[in-house]
Amino acid sequence: MLHYAVVFFVIAIIAAIFGFGGIAAGAAEIAKILFFIFVVLFVVSLLVGLLRRR
User: Fold this and answer.
1) pLDDT tens-digit map of 9-22
2) Taking residues 26-46, what's their average pLDDT?
């Protein structure tokens, strides 16, 4: 999932360079959403792993 966030971030950067504002904004929003989903899943899996050790 982090891979997809990076891919959409790169698409947003390339689109911004070429002046496609709408595409860049859309790709950046998708990258942000995927990144935050990745962070939440990482924290949840970290907490589950810590709770299973006890």
Assistant:
1) 888 888 888 887 78
2) 88
Are 34 and 1 a contacting pair, CB within 8 Å? Answer: yes
Domain that holds residue 6: 2-53
Domain count, the chain: 1
Q: Is the pTM of this model over 0.85?
A: no
Return d(Cα 18, Cα 29) in angstroms, integer. Answer: 18
38: buried, middle or exposed (CB in 10 Å: 19+, 13-18, 0-12)? middle
CA–CA separation, 33 and 5 (whole Å): 8
